[in-house]
Amino acid sequence: MIAMVRDDIISLESFVQAKFKYERYLLLLKNAGNYCFLDQFKRLFEKGEAIAKNMEDMSLIKTETLNNNYKYIYLTDTAMKYILLKDDPKDYTGVVKNKISVLKVNKYPSEKVLMSSALKFELIAKGKGQMILKEELINNLKESFYKQSNIIKIVEIKKEMEAIRVEYNKIIIVQNKRIQLLQEVLGVQFMHQESNLHEFKIQGDTKLKVLEEEFQNLGVLEWKRKKEIQEEIIELKHELEKNNFCIELEKKVEEQIEKTKAPSAIFLKKYNDFKNQVEEYKKEQEKNKKIDEQYFNLEKKILNMYDKSKVVVYFEEEKLQFVILDTGNTKTAFGYLKMISELKTLYKFSEINIFVASYSENRAKNLLNEFNKTQNEKNKALKIMVAYEKNTGVDRINRKHWKYAPSFYISAEKIYHNTPEISNYDYSKETIVLEIYIKNISMSENYIRSKDKKVFAELKEKIKKQL
Amino acid sequence: MPRESTKVKVLTGRDTSILKQLSRTGLSNAQQAKGYCNLGRERLKKLEKSGYIKTTKHIVRGKNTLIIQLDKVGKEWCRQELGTTSFCVAQTNHLNHDLKLTEAYYNLPESVQATWRHEGELIQDIYEKNPSLSENGGLKTCTDATVQVNEETIAIESVGSSYTSSIIELKKEIATQYLGCSRMECV
After folding, report:
1. ipTM for the complex shown
2. CA angle (A237 as vertex; A234, A243 as ends), nearest 5
């Protein structure tokens, strides 16, 4: 394996080990969210224990106690520097290594952060969580959203236009030189007297006609005048002949110039075609501005759900895939359905598939039961609505024109419309193994920082003195 | 040999002290229950089985922690025995902050603990005295609690990791201006 080694960001040995031996694990940890359980790491990889130990020795990971039985792993500053700066063009030679700042991984993560990270780590390591990667998620969203719209690659067109413009300018310079040379060779000074040549021909022809007529009408005795006219006719014919030659020559030169101009004309046409294409695209863009705004809002929403609510949302054709990373929060099925309803205002999907990735089978099943209940409520509401419609003979299609609707119908309608229909729901059996890690309670006194303990002692003293 | 009951027969002083605390600060953890009320896991299990408390496991500062909150029977007991009308609401997404506040509570003498008023009560008081403040979404923030020490009202604030100096200043201003506090103790 050949690779560039950088000892300006981390020590040479750590870099070599990270690059050649442990990159896969480092990237996996980073993609999962910087944390996983130590036992999970050992279980998922062959020789995991030795790998984790070596990585810890190389200061690429650190471990922290979760409870009496289990520990968790987190990425160190060295690992973060390797991941984030290995492709950084900036040379850090001369900068003290601990002065190079990168995003620091918190030694004590919150429950949400640790559990979502461990869940993602489990799924990705088992090859079941490709879509959990943020990058994949965004790509999928873009692809699904703009699938139908035929987007012109404006940047590429502009590049091509610029290339054509440069080429066109070069050709114009060559062409002008060629025309100049052509004119010099042919000595066509009359090129700019085009209208005079034709005028002279018309005038000359008329004059010739007049002279010839006069010559015909002259008597025998008027030989002197006849001679003059004859001379004049010869002179005029000579001039006209010369003029005709000039017209002919000019025509030939014009043809020659047109031929010279031909390549640039092709370029000009091509350039103008592109220009029109860009202008039309711009007009189209104006129309699509609203769609783009909608996409922006959708992306923002989905990223927010990914980062804050720990819900992974992606689309497969018109199916919404809703993966809940259960981190031990108290969110109910209604809370998640509210999120789905919000998504529906931004993107149309016909099917909803819910997948719960939890560390606890009971929690996952309970949540799915809650979803089931919402679907039952929806069906119940529909039955109420249908029964009322049947009894009164009204049609739901004309609902807007109904003069009256009873309150029970309105509340059933609300439930029916506000509860999205779920096509499939299931939970991950892969992640249940994580439950053992958080079964045991820690009795460590570390729930309060040692510096805070001093503050409490001071407060106690202060109040005591005051009493 | 008779089987030992899994439920609480009589509430002891140790039990009542945790119930009082839970009604005032919202939650505590197994370490605090053991350290300040001398309640072991077994007793907590019995209290839970009897409906006085509910326990959940959460990771706080990287440690798997048993979080204790009041349950229905516990709330009812507080209403009847202590005359509690307003319970402190604790959220599991601010565990670190809430556990610090509980720690502050337990570090106060018992006579001062009895004067503890939680955020919900304080906000209610402010709105009653200044109805205009409840308009437009109400107060954006408030101090976590107040205690009485020799006629003097002191505000207690558990400083969260995301607090800026301007937020702390605002809390201090609310404490002194609307709650009559002489000072604010930040923990």
Report:
1. 0.88
2. 145
